[in-house]
Specification:
alpha/beta; Arc Repressor Mutant, subunit A; D-Maltodextrin-Binding Protein, domain 2; 3 domains; seven-stranded mixed β-sheet; two-stranded antiparallel sheet; 11 strands; globular
């Protein structure tokens, strides 16, 4: 069995199609098919169920996928450990939820100190970003915490106040069951906190509209389409300009912490180690300089 066989197998599993995997890998389709068949012959079992639209992993394929992810990630760690040197350089792949207001300060300081590092940012919801870190697709991620997972390390970045936001003078808390909620997709930590509160209170919203970006959500709220839940720091300017109103959620649902996570058993490169140190310094400065939220 060759390592590249596992790489090809993972790509086919990810794409759900041999032809799509061949395009992404820049291989001819017959080569990908042959490598999958060779892998199945060597393991004495089919790995995929075939259908008109492509392929899907069967139970044996799911089992192999776990091994393949672990093996290929360990090989990447091995390469990094030998390529790592005194210079802090290379690329960091970092996931973010869209409303991490501390991020510009962290990135600015880090870029000034380590200009040879390229930071690639991927926006998403908390649940997906956690999975991407566990799958070694990301070096780390800023997500809503705290979280509990045996394979994840976490570092608190900033504590914030979660508020319900509506168009100015257009909503009261008595209208919760008759006003549309404009929320991120499932897996968002803010949405999860809101839904936990509504479940406890027995609140059933009339309508939930899902969006993928903060700009679209807050623009729609400002237009009076509905309400959303967001960290207060993300809308402070809009509140002061009297464009939107804030409405308090009860404790503990209003208390959120942005954390930075990375995989516990991953090899920590010098670049990632310095990035984590920059986050620690920034978090300490925020804790020292930021007044307590009296809202």
């Amino acid at each position: 069995m060759e390592l590249n066989d596992l790489v090809i197998f993972q790509k086919v599993a990810e794409c759900g199609s041999i032809s799509k995997a061949a395009v992404e890998l820049n291989y001819v389709q017959s080569n990908v098919t042959a490598r999958i068949k060779r892998l199945e012959k060597e393991l004495h079992t089919p790995l995929f169920s075939r259908h008109k639209r492509g392929v899907v992993l069967n139970s044996e394929g799911e089992r192999l996928l776990e091994y393949a992810k672990e093996i290929t990630s360990k090989v990447e760690e091995l390469k990094q450990s030998f390529q790592d040197h005194a210079d802090v350089s290379g690329m960091l792949k970092i996931g973010i939820v869209e409303t991490v207001n501390a991020l510009p300060g962290i990135l600015s300081s880090f870029n000034d100190a380590y200009p040879n590092v390229e930071v690639s940012l991927m926006a998403g919801v908390t649940d997906q970003l956690i999975q991407d870190v566990l799958d070694m697709k990301l070096d780390g991620a800023f997500v809503t915490g705290p979280i509990r997972h045996p394979n994840v390390e976490q570092l608190p970045v900033v504590e914030e106040n979660l508020v319900l936001v509506s168009k100015r003078d257009s909503f009261t808390m008595d209208q919760l069951t008759t006003t549309p909620f404009l929320l991120y997709h499932k897996g968002c930590g803010y949405r999860g906190r809101l839904e936990s509160w509504m479940k406890v209170e027995g609140i059933i919203p009339r309508k939930i509209m899902e969006f993928g970006t903060f700009g679209t959500i807050i623009g729609s709220v400002s237009a009076g389409i509905g309400v959303t839940v967001i960290p207060k720091s993300s809308v402070t300017n809009l509140i002061s300009q009297e464009i939107v109103d804030e409405h308090q959620l009860p404790e503990p649902y209003c208390n959120i912490t942005t954390i930075f996570i990375w995989r516990k058993d991953a090899y920590i490169t010098r670049t990632l180690a310095h990035f984590i140190e920059e986050i620690k310094l920034h978090a300490e400065q925020l804790a020292e300089n930021s007044p307590q939220d009296d809202a």
